[in-house]
Amino acid sequence: MSFESMFYPDGVIFTAEEKKEQARVSLIYNVTEDILLALEDLGLSKKDLAEKLNRTPALGVAILTVLSAITLVLGLAWALAVVFGDMG
Question: What are the CA-CA distances from residue 27 to residues 7, 23, 47, 57 (Å)?
Fold first, then answer.
């Protein structure tokens, strides 16, 4: 299932630039999700992550917070694009 088929009716034609942007955002979203799932699967805590990166526990918390925020923001961006369309 593609992004287009999930959010747009059949027959919508995207420009090359729109397709490129969709691919970029999709890649960021997928990589972010994969990282968060891998940490969960490995049972790594924020402290464990920070130790493996040779950083303070606060940085481990910050990294996970940023990854979670990126996932949330990208999801919201897609939702807004669907609801409001191109407002540029």
Answer: 17, 6, 27, 28
Contacts (Cβ under 8 Å, ≥6 apart) of 77: 25
pTM over 0.70: no
> Contacts from 58-66 at CB under 8 Å and sequence distance 24+?
64/36, 64/39
Q: What pLDDT, in 10s, does the model give residues 29-74?
A: 788 788 778 888 999 877 787 888 888 888 877 877 787 787 777 7
Query: In total, how many domains does the chain have?
Result: 1
Q: Is 54 helix (H, G, I), strand (E, B) or coil?
A: coil
> Side chain identity at 15, as an amino acid letter?
T
The torsion region of residue 43 among left (phi > 0), alpha (psi -120 to 50) and beta comes to left
Domain interval for residue 66: 15-83
Residue 29 CA from chain centroid, whole number: 2
